[in-house]
Amino acid sequence: MKRRLLLSVAGVSLLTASAGCGPAPDPAGDINAGATPEPPASPGPAAPPAPSPSPTPLNVASPSLAPPTRKPRLAAPPLFSLPSEDKLVALTLDDGPDPTHTPTVLKILHDYGIRATFFLVGENVSAHRSLVTDIAQQGHHIANHTWSHPDLRQLSATAVRDQLERTSDLLQELTGKPPTWFRAPGGDFSNNALSACADLGMRPMGWSVDPRDWARPGTAKITSRVLEEIGPGSIVLNHDGGGDRSQTVAALKTYLPVLLDGGYRFTAPR
User: Fold this and answer.
1) Which of 94, 95, 98, 213 is catalytic?
2) Helix (H, G, I), strand (E, B) or coil at 267
3) Which of 92, 131, 157, 216 has the fewest CB atoms within 10 Å, counting from its CB?
4) What is the DSSP code (8-state) at residue 45?
């Protein structure tokens, strides 16, 4: 009997110990037990997708336009006579300015009221600049006769252009105007000379009356050749530079009054 009592007490102790080893009841768990769970919060509106970055433009150069090519001016043939049926003529003087003969020629032209065209050599212009001013101030036309009076047929296109351009630049510097007429030494107009002449804004001028005064054939011969060959529209060639031109000066004093008395008028083509 005593042994059964001890076993019963031991069993009760074990049950009590087992109950004490379990987890303690959670009061909050008891309150929420059986309650309806709240639905999860609905998500807000979806954010718009981030824009994709613009592609980096390629560094490709656009094709550049080539500058327009300047068209060269068309070369004109030389003028050998004036388009006139009247007794209108042109007197031209080459190879100056000359410190001895040009002032005398200017006085003769002034005395007879004649305007002429002076085809000047650049080297002489550079050496006698004041004479160029005198020629221009007296109303005569100043024209280009190259820089050093070479045979242009023997020069390259570049050298020909240099002969003309240097002279034109200096004449414009001294007179304020670019020359509009050009004459090749000896009248030898090469294709290069005509092209450079046109490209520099000038026109070529030849002649129709040549008394060959440069060869100094004598005053009488120079005079007779001019009077025999002249006619309406003639362009007369004389020289005031390039050597002894005393025969030319004397011939001018002789034939100019004869032509004026015969009804001829003189012009300097512009």
Assistant:
1) 94
2) coil
3) 157
4) P
